[in-house]
Amino acid sequence: MRKFALLGVCLILIFLISGCTQFPIPGNFFQKQDKLSVGRGLKLSFADNAPPTDRILVGENSQFLVRVTIENYGEAVSGTLKIWDNIPGDKLEKDKSIPVDLKRADIRHDKNTDVIRAIYPDVFHTDTYAVSYTDEEIAPGTKLNVFAELTIPNFPAQIVTNICLKREQDIDPSCSNKEVIGSAQLTRQALYVPVTVDSIEKTATPLDKGNYFVHLNFKNLGGGSIFTEESTAGSEVKVRKDVGEIMTIEEGAVELTGTAGATFTCSPTKLIFENNAATLDCYATVKGPEETSVTYPLYIGYMFNYRMRIKAGPIPLVKISEEGTIVEDL
């Protein structure tokens, strides 16, 4: 008994020394935490065993369940969800369009360093759908495929970073007129948006001339596809191989804020994504203040239409008798 008492005292001391601030708030204690992952943004998945992936029993007294989960690790977004399967009759496609409103993720920072310690996603669950088929409805040799598709129009993205400018005659190793800003130097919004700015290449002439160029490298890292308004949910996204997916860049999307107050002219206005990547070239003339070197916030704001699709299957279908015994594979 003495050993157990000493062990209990030691555990209490360890808890007190480590400090309660190192642990999640009790309300989120059992909630899933996320590790930093560029392009995570959204996660679309089927719930465990809904549907089962080993086999589906087909018969008068059998049914299987379908449920979809969406996790949002970024800003608040809204869209629609569609669920269907490959069996004629549309038994699963009861809800043609399920509204989805995802709140902003709960981001926990270290109170001393402001480093992100944990992210608790906003989680959306659909209803649990019970579906059953008889062997008369299934063609011989058919295997079940269940699909879920999340469509989010006008997905917002706002990314901010700092960029410095200096005079030609000044030697300042902390400020270069040519530099590459990687995703690690961008704000959290760059990490948690599916189509993000992966890096920024800056080229700047001295402040007295004021020519300023940025080369933005975009990447689609979210596992989904960018679509145009003509595409419809539930259909294959028709993309010409020689064109790729297109994202429109509005005027004023890239802006140098602060005292510089410069808006960039960017081209092309329609970004063409090939192999999930696209580049944008922007130019502005900046009239800087009298300081030898200055740092300005660079704002990048854009929207895109995004679609994610998942599939469970092909799943074997097994016929059962009225007594519930397995008869044969369909």
Notable features of this structure?
single chain; 2 helices; mainly beta; 5-stranded antiparallel β-sheet; 6% helix; Immunoglobulin-like
**Count of helical stretches:** 2
Query: Would you tell me the structural class of the helices and strands?
Result: mainly beta
Low-confidence stretches: 11-39, 230-244
Subunit arrangement of the protein: single chain
Query: Overall 3D geometry?
Result: elongated
Overall pLDDT level? 75
Question: How would a crystallographer describe the biggest sheet?
Answer: 7 strands, antiparallel
Radius of gyration: 26 Å
Percent of sequence in beta strands = over 45%
Helix content: under 10%
Distance between the termini: 62 Å
| Total count of domains | 2
Write up this protein.
This protein is mostly beta strands and about 325 residues long. The chain has two domains: about 25-150 and about 310-330, Immunoglobulins (Immunoglobulin-like, Sandwich), CATH 2.60.40; about 155-305, no CATH class. The chain has two helices and 24 strands. Strands 5, 6, 11, 15, 17, 18 and 22 form a seven-stranded antiparallel β-sheet that branches. A five-stranded antiparallel β-sheet has the order 12-13-14-21-19. A hairpin with a 5-residue loop joins β23 (about 315-320) and β24 (about 325-330). The chain is elongated and about 85 Å long. The N and C termini lie far apart (about 60 Å). Mean pLDDT is about 75; it is low at about 10-40 and about 230-245.
Furnish the topology, listing elements before pairings:
Blueprint: H1 2-18, E1 42-46, E2 56-58, E3 64-66, E4 68-72, E5 77-85, E6 98-102, E7 106-109, E8 116-120, E9 122-125, E10 129-131, E11 144-166, E12 178-182, H2 188-191, E13 195-204, E14 211-220, E15 225-226, E16 245-248, E17 254-256, E18 262-263, E19 265-267, E20 270-273, E21 277-285, E22 293-315, E23 317-320, E24 326-329
Parallel strand pairs: 2-23
Antiparallel strand pairs: 1-4, 3-10, 4-9, 5-6, 5-11, 7-8, 11-22, 12-13, 13-14, 14-21, 15-22, 16-20, 17-18, 17-22, 19-21, 23-24
